Amino acid sequence: MIRGILRVVGLTIVVILLVSVAFVGGYGSSRLMFPPPLPADGGAPADWQPSFKVFWEAWNYVHQDFYKPNINDSELVNSSIAGMVQALGDTHTAFVDAKQAAISSTSLTGSFEGIGATVEMREGRLTIVTPIKGSPAEKAGLLPNDVVLQVNDTVIQNMDVTQAVTLIRGPKGSKVKLLIQRSRVPNFTVEIVRDTIRTPFVESRMLEGTNIAYLRLNDFGATAPEEIQAALRELLAQNPTGLVFDLRNDPGGYLSVSIDVASQFLKGSQVVLVEKDKDGRSQEFRAKGNGLATNIPMVLLINGGSASASEIVAAALKDYNRASLIGTKSYGKGSVQNVHTLSDKSELRVTIAHFFSPKGNEINEVGVSPDIEVKVTEDDIANKRDPQLDRAIQFLQNGK
Q: For this structure, is 97 an active site residue?
């Protein structure tokens, strides 16, 4: 049966090298839809043969003339579908083959098998954003800004990020060799033994030397609402004077989770986002009420890796002046996809709507701008400085 799931598909540049790609959204789901199963012919209309005449002509000539033996028909079919949706001109309407779909679907479960590093594609170069604490990647000595040039024998420059992750991931106990480029040192190879990595979606603590609480959300995964609530209860029990909510490099996740998360900081019935479809019809999604942190002074940290569901929360908190936003402009992924699982477990993701802030501000290809812009330089990263967090602490302590 073909299953359609409405998701906010996030950023495609930030992924976790575990078993999954957090699609720049992870994936967002505000509601589930189960359309009737398609017939064996995929639901082709009676006159499909004339429409596909040229396709079948090309298909047959390829099989008749191509000089290499053993043509992979599955790859031809997948590439044909990918080309079809690419012609629509929408970045987030895409076909994902079964193997990559399996990787993506596990991104928000909190348990992965792989090396344990957050990466992004920067100008065609797969770059380590940060190794996860205690992960094989950290133990192997990988550092932020390291560039992965090669995986085993495969060069990955300008490769689709999902394909690169497919090469790097693998079962616990297996090995992978990475050719690494690092500033000011010769290229070198590391061999990493993959492992099962369990990462909570939420990190929280009281910031040392302050009475300010710190809450970080890594992904809008399925258990994030419960983790957020538990963390807030523990933090608020310590009577903090302010709260830093960190959504930097959070690629997004389930749309329903974004509403649950925003509801912890907004008053009941306040609009979290407005969704508009191709016919101009609008639907409002509202906070659920009973939020735990609706009054505490608050700063929200964002950057170019904050996408999708992260931008929903950021835009809502900004519109209501609920938090001051510090950092850099977010990614700008403001569309909703209906994700269909096809018969071979591949996925077809079709953009069906755009979402807007409560005040109707565009997010897609625009992003959410901070109230106070603070950039992080490569020198800051190399020296483990965090000027954005420092500015947030200063803001909460001084009120400006």
A: no
